[in-house]
Specification:
The complex is a heterodimer of chains A (213) and B (156). By secondary structure, chain A is an all-alpha fold. Chain A contains twelve helices and no strands. Chain B is elongated, with a radius of gyration of 27 Å. The N and C termini of chain B lie far apart (65 Å).
Chain lengths: 213, 156
């Protein structure tokens, strides 16, 4: 008799068994604890909270490094290789911009929003959307257009994290730069990305892009 | 006997000649003190002239030189950074000189609607100017100077 009961139990599907487990878990969770003191539970919760939040932040910061970004050959062989010859990689003072400095917002909520968007990029990585140079070049306009739109929408915030218009000494700039910045930047007529496209990576086909021929 | 003495004398002369050549360090004025068979220290790289002020041409057909930096300006199939300022439609905003009308001509002298592909790559003719003092000075004399010399009372 018992053997048949066991058999019937094992015959039950995985989903049904999971559902039973969840019901039992819910029962345990909503019952007041009769074993642990309230203080112990609060303290344990506090410690677990620290571990969880710290772990989350550590993971977040880990994915926010150049080493992580260039871990994929798509980034390493294309955009990172192109960055290397620009002033944002090597310059007289040695201050340099890494990938997240320009491509991930520094503000927490914006950063999380961008990270969630980036799940699309994981999809692209898995299915090899840009896994050859040719595919990357084919997609370059689309990828660049996303970044231009983002910079345009947030008034080139990631540029301004380092380059402040208020701290710009136009007397130290070349005549061309000082005139252009006074006419277009200080009057807020244009934002950085309107003129400074293609400063860190090579440009896509620029036909039809405003300001380009 | 005479022949053998001649050969011996020649051998001595060659030996002395090569010896004195090897002893003396061969260098030229442009290279500085570095011997010919050594590579000297690289001279420092100087910045480009960046005044954005027009420079006069030495002869009418000379492609005007670029009086500003063009570091990182992309000129290829995808785009031409120079045209962002110097294209006809962009000059009002940029106040930069427009690309010459000759650049719109194809090789048969027909004017096209935009820059002719044969004139697309600016830096083939137009180049920025460095601030370095050239090791060899240039004694080019322009036509106006030559003509003024030929005129009566002018220096011949």
């Amino acid at each position: 008799m018992t053997t048949t009961a066991d058999e019937s139990k094992e015959k039950r599907g995985f989903i049904a068994r999971s559902w039973d487990f969840l019901l039992e878990l819910w029962g345990v969770l909503r019952r007041p604890s009769s074993v642990f003191a309230l203080g112990t539970l609060v303290l344990a919760g506090f410690v677990a909270g620290i571990i969880f939040w710290g772990g989350f932040n550590t993971a977040l910061e880990l994915t926010n490094t150049e080493k992580f970004c260039t871990g994929c050959h798509e980034m390493k062989d294309n955009v990172y290789a192109e960055l290397k010859s620009t002033i944002h990689f090597t310059n007289r003072s040695g201050v340099r911009a890494t990938c997240p400095d320009c491509h991930v917002p520094h503000n927490w909520t914006d950063k999380i929003a961008r990270k969630m968007q980036a799940s699309k990029e994981v999809w692209g990585k898995i299915f090899g959307t840009i896994d050859t140079r040719e595919k990357f070049v084919d997609h370059r306009l689309e990828l660049a257009a996303h970044e231009w739109a983002r910079f345009k929408a947030n008034d080139s915030l990631e540029c301004r994290n380092c380059h402040s218009a208020d701290s710009m000494d136009i007397t130290k700039q070349s005549p061309r730069a000082s005139v252009a910045h006074q006419r277009f930047l200080f009057t807020k007529e244009k934002t950085c990305i309107d003129c400074h496209k293609g400063i860190a990576h090579q440009l896509p086909d620029m036909r039809g892009v405003p300001g380009w021929q | 006997m005479l022949k053998r003495t001649g050969i011996a004398l020649l051998a001595i002369a060659i030996a002395i000649g090569t010896g004195s050549l090897a002893a003396q360090t061969v260098n030229s004025g442009l290279r500085g003190a570095t011997p010919l068979n050594d590579e000297g220290p690289a001279p420092p790289m100087l910045p480009n002239r960046n005044t954005a002020e027009k420079e006069s041409r030495n002869y009418p057909e000379q492609p005007p030189v670029i009086p500003h930096n063009i570091d990182g300006y992309q000129i290829d199939l995808n785009g031409n950074k120079c045209l962002s300022c110097h294209a006809r439609a962009r000059t009002a905003e940029s106040q930069a000189p427009m690309v010459s009308i000759t650049h719109f001509m194809d090789r048969d002298g027909q004017f096209l609607a935009s820059i002719s592909p044969r004139r697309f790559f600016c830096t083939e003719c137009h180049v920025p100017q460095n601030t370095a003092t050239p090791p060899v000075s240039n004694d080019f004399t322009d036509i106006d100077t030559l003509l003024s010399r030929a005129s009566p009372g002018g220096r011949r």
